[in-house]
Design brief:
Elements (H helix, E strand, L loop, with lengths): L2 H6 L3 H44 L3 H10 L4 H18 L10 H22 L3 H33 L4 H58 L2
């Protein structure tokens, strides 16, 4: 009895469980490929932006580089901070001299807001990987229990415990278990890997925000 024939002849409940698990698996793999490309691009462009940031002699040069590297969270944070600096320059009071604590706090808030937005963007769809990793084994387990229960029902109906009677239900149960694990394991591995990369990027964002704030205070301080 081949794999497809077992599924085709399986109980409708088992078929629905397998269909649900296949959906989780396919959607998870789509997210894995998408997140892999997104995070790879974010890391690569962040490295390029930092190199441009360190060698540039003015904020205008850095701004030009940031506009070309919008996949970089650091570039987006810089653009938000630079926009806040430009706004403060335009709104500067005539009697105000030098850099004030209020300006520092305002710039800090702008940097934090941009950083939080970027973290949220990077974490988008991560919840589905976490859900797949935690729920799929239990859905598969339900299919296992259901398949075994069907085997006992068939034994009672046929009044026989022969392999021919028991095998289909046991096979359905094992397939449900296998598909549940197949959906869950890659999702858990990918979730933990992506979470680590996002934490690294988040730390880089925090460090860059502090560095940018320090540079702004030196450039505009009294």
């Amino acid at each position: 009895m081949n794999f497809l024939k077992i599924i085709a002849e399986a109980d409708i409940v088992v078929q629905l469980i397998l269909l649900l698990l296949v959906f989780f698996s396919v959607f998870s793999w789509a997210i894995i490929f998408f997140k892999s490309r997104t995070l790879k691009s974010a890391v690569k462009q962040s490295d390029r932006f930092l190199a441009a940031f360190r060698r540039s002699k003015s904020l205008a040069e850095v701004s030009d580089a940031a506009k070309r590297l919008r996949a970089s969270p650091l570039a987006i944070i810089f653009l938000a901070g630079n926009k806040e600096l430009a706004y403060q320059s335009k709104a500067k009071s005539k009697g105000e001299i030098g850099w004030t604590g209020e300006k520092t706090e305002s710039l800090h808030r702008a940097l934090i807001k941009a950083s939080n937005t970027e973290v949220a963007r990077l974490e988008k769809m991560m919840f589905f990987l976490a859900t797949t990793g935690s729920v799929s084994p239990f859905i598969g387990l339900f299919g296992t229990v259901w398949g075994i229960m069907i085997s006992f029902i068939r034994i009672g109906a046929m009044r026989s415990a022969s392999l021919q009677v028991v095998a289909p239900g046991i096979a359905e149960a094992l397939i449900a278990t296998a598909v549940g694990l197949f959906a869950a394991v890659p999702a858990v591995i990918a979730y933990n890997y992506f979470l680590g990369r996002i934490k690294d990027l988040s730390a880089d964002m925090e460090d860059f925000s502090l560095e940018f704030l320090s540079i702004a205070e030196r450039l505009h301080g009294s």
